[in-house]
Specification:
By secondary structure, this protein is an alpha/beta fold. About 40% of the residues lie in helices and about 15% in strands. The strands form six sheets. Strands 12-11-20-21-22-19-23 form a seven-stranded mixed β-sheet. A six-stranded mixed β-sheet has the order 14-7-6-18-25-24, with helices on both faces.
């Protein structure tokens, strides 16, 4: 049987990375797994798939998948890719080629690619040598009989012709000069292959791109909703071609003079479209070469040398590009020599939110946060600065990758790795003399850069939410959900004001102090099971705001005096705010405009404006959008006059009360555990609050009554209720209680949701996009602190997606 390469035209065969592969004779189709070249024109992978399908006499199917498991998946990346999918689906349909899209989300997580591939004679995909695509490709190869072959659709000089791992740009430029010259100006041959269209059954329900609201689809995916789409920044071949043509006609000639000026529109801003293959590098290189100017020559050097050296390097390392060992030996040696140098660390959250105190760096990070892009000259300084702000070079590298890939539309690309690792010595040489921390790495100081790029002017240009006017948003309720929503909106460049009726924000993550005791009388601890929440929790732990509570936790099914055994509950990592649960609220509220002691009692919607009044009828303000993060019953009552639909949904989530008793003892309560779930009698939970990290060591206990007793004694005498629960503590534990130095009671009217909404069904919140209204809270997302946090992000994301939808 002939090899696949033998069935291809010469210009396609040279781009095949597995030329000796042979098709599976029993396959019923050729499957093109489209993942890195979202275009129909001048697409070597598509042309190769079409030629193979015609040669084998089987139909062709183009499959595109968008997987939640891709690292750094967020609304921003999903929106850009889905807009590209819509364009390429239209282009392929015009050519008679079937394109199907599978977007993983709750209810749609079947192994669609593997099932289709198992029926294929050959699977064709693009060579994109970065994680996780290298690993996913290897797993698919191991799972099916048919060959999975990769085609280089990204470089002018095919990757298969670059014989060795490149070290420096000048060497790569020279080694590939002849190959590049032979291919640069040659027109891409139009494919004559016209394979049959695959009309067989699919193992999944494809997304109907022409009938689907892409932003609603994004909201249904379990991805990072804190990073919203960039308003006005459309993905796809149509937008990409328009951007290229505008630059080609208006900016290419002067590129050599303007490329380093971040305040000028002197660059192509094409990297995101090249990353996803929405525009053909073959086309733009050919047309730039035809321009024949100094600007075009310099731009082509960036495209053909600096971009392609990164692709070739990733190709030869077969995607092993994120480890510290990937750096040149000389760079690792100098970093090791300076590993112990004094640094000025910043936390991961300070970096992500652009709150380091360095004006230029923070402005650059704001550009990433709000615009999804960073001028390349600024990006080099931005990247270098992470080294002195990180405890080790390895941490600096991880931060470089995370920040760039999470926020930049051109992230997760081989060219990204080339630029990021250049900051730590890749494709560079040693510089003398050695300097602290950097050693012989090339330094780039933000203060020096700021002398030629005024940070305030630069920030004013880039620190705004794309093409949209910033929203003015009222957030009613200062608990975890409300604060998270406000912070997400503020980080995206919008004005969020938080109104809370209490003396300070926090809701149920509150701490009450009665010297020398401290009590977390609401939420006792929290867990972080969802990766989207876990990322922020780890940043809070790094900042010292959150610590692990390692106290012994048990379950009590019968009074211990009766000889009942305690059941160990040690299978969960329990986390607490430090020095009190309210530290989390204070941290979330930093940099936010929080109006405490304001009870919003009235709402009115007139045109596109929300008007708020307080309980005295005084005007609170006018806003473009509203986030209500009150407990369900309170939200229903407030919204009923203005939005019966959402009010009715909230009213369908009843909430139960909890009575908390706060006890300070003069001596230690002699129990060998620090917290217990009580499954007998009127108590539901007891805990030694003083066992939590950061608390005073004076013996402090929290008792939570179960919902039944809490409802029964809601209006009963406070002291009698305290006495009752103290007696119950003694009965359940079977120990003599020491003298009590402090006793108090707190009522939580809306403590527990009886039947919280399914977060998978509602996307973590309730919303009316057209009205600029979102409801959030733990009752929208399965309960607990994690649910409240994710619900707040989901509510903010609804508003951010609506801004992008209308831009």
């Amino acid at each position: 049987m002939p090899t696949l390469a033998a069935s291809l035209s010469a210009h396609l065969a040279e781009r095949l990375c597995q030329p000796e592969a042979q098709p599976d004779p029993g396959g019923e189709l050729v499957l093109y797994w489209m993942r890195g070249s979202l275009r129909a024109d001048e697409n070597p992978a598509l042309d190769a798939a079409a030629e193979l399908a015609e040669a084998l006499g089987v139909p062709l199917l183009v499959y595109q998948g968008l997987d939640e498991r891709h690292p750094h998946s967020c609304d921003r990346h999903h929106a850009f890719i889905l807009e590209g999918a819509r364009d390429v689906a239209r282009e392929l349909e015009a050519r008679g080629v079937r394109h199907v899209l599978h977007v993983t989300r709750p209810g749609h997580r079947q192994p669609a690619l593997r099932k289709l591939a198992s029926r294929s004679a050959v699977v064709v995909t693009e060579r994109v040598p970065v994680p996780p695509l290298v690993e996913w490709t290897a797993r698919l190869r191991a799972a099916i009989e048919a060959p999975v072959v990769e085609v280089d659709a990204a470089c002018i000089v095919p990757l298969s012709l670059v014989e060795r791992l490149p070290a420096r740009a000048f060497g790569f430029r020279k080694a590939t000069e002849q190959l590049r010259r032979e291919r640069l100006t040659a027109p891409w041959p139009a494919s004559d292959a016209r394979p049959r269209r695959f009309e067989g059954e699919l193992p999944f329900e494809p997304v109907e791109l022409e009938r689907t609201d892409l932003y609603d689809l994004i909201g249904a995916c379990e991805i990072d909703h804190s990073v919203g789409p960039v308003p006005g920044e459309r993905g796809g071949s149509v937008a990409g071609s328009a951007r290229w043509e505008a630059f080609r006609d208006q900016g290419l000639r002067s590129y050599d003079r303007t490329r380093n000026e971040a305040l000028l529109d002197g660059v192509s801003r094409l990297s995101a479209y090249l990353h996803h293959g929405m525009v053909s590098p073959l086309r733009v290189a050919r047309e730039a070469a035809a321009a024949d100017s100094r600007g075009a020559t310099k731009w082509l050097d960036e495209l053909l040398v600096w971009r392609e050296i990164a692709w070739a390097w990733c190709h030869h390392r077969d995607g092993c590009v994120e480890s510290y060992d990937a750096l040149p030996e000389w760079a690792r040696a100098t970093l090791e020599e300076h590993r112990g140098d004094l640094r000025a660390p910043r936390t991961s959250e300070q970096l992500a939110r652009g709150r380091t105190g360095d004006a230029l760096w923070d402005a650059a990070q704001a550009a990433l946060l709000m615009r999804g892009e960073l001028h390349n000259n600024v990006r080099m300084t931005w990247g270098k600065q992470l080294l002195p702000w990180s405890a080790t070079p390895e941490i600096a590298l991880r931060r470089l990758i995370d920040l760039n890939h999470r926020y930049a539309l051109d992230g997760r690309d081989p060219a990204s790795y080339g630029g990021l690792l250049w900051c730590l010595g890749l494709f560079d040489r040693p510089f003398v003399p050695d300097v602290p921390i950097f050693g012989s790495l090339r330094p780039r100081d933000t203060e020096i850069h700021a002398r030629r790029l005024d940070p305030a002017t630069y920030r004013a240009r880039v620190a705004r939410p794309g093409a949209a006017r910033p929203l003015r948003v009222a957030v009613i309720g200062g608990g975890v959900a409300g604060l998270t929503a406000a912070r997400t909106l503020a980080d995206a460049g919008h004005d969020a004001l938080v109104f809370d009726k209490g003396r300070g924000p926090g809701g149920r993550i509150s701490t009450r102090r009665a010297e020398p005791f401290a009590f977390d009388h609401g939420a006792q601890y929290f867990t972080a099971r969802d990766a989207r929440f876990r990322r922020w929790v780890e940043a809070w732990m790094e900042a010292g705001v959150v610590q692990r509570w390692t106290g012994r936790i048990v379950a009590i099914d019968k009074p211990l005096a009766d000889g009942a055994a305690q059941v160990e509950k040690s299978d969960t990592e329990r986390l607490v705010g430090a020095p009190g649960m309210n530290a989390i609220a204070r941290h979330l509220a930093e940099d936010l405009d929080v109006r405490s002691g304001v009870r919003v009692a009235g709402l009115e919607r007139s045109g596109d404006v929300w008007s708020l009044t307080d309980e005295h009828g005084a005007a609170v303000g006018e806003f473009d959008a509203l986030v209500c993060s009150l407990p369900a019953e309170q939200a229903a009552e407030l919204l009923a006059p203005v939005h019966a639909g959402l009010a009715g949904q909230a009213a369908g989530v009843p909430m139960k009360p909890t009575i908390a008793v706060l006890l300070g003892f003069e001596a230690r309560l002699e129990l060998d555990f620090d917290g217990a779930f009580v499954n007998t009698g009127p108590l539901s939970w007891i805990a030694r609050n003083s066992s939590k990290p950061g608390r005073p060591r004076h013996e402090a206990w929290i008792l939570h009554a179960g919902p039944e007793l809490s409802m029964e004694r809601w209006d009963a005498d406070r002291e009698e209720t305290v006495d009752l629960l103290i007696a119950e503590l003694a009965r359940v534990t079977g120990v003599a209680l020491p003298p009590i130095a402090h006793r108090d009671l707190h009522r939580w009217r809306y403590a527990l949701s009886d039947k919280a909404l399914d977060p998978k069904a509602g996307g973590g919140c309730l919303a009316d996009d057209a009205a600029g209204l979102a409801l959030c809270g733990d009752w929208c997302a399965g309960g607990r602190v994690e649910g409240a946090f994710l619900s707040g992000q989901a509510a903010a994301a609804r508003l951010l997606r609506q801004v992008a939808r209308l831009a």
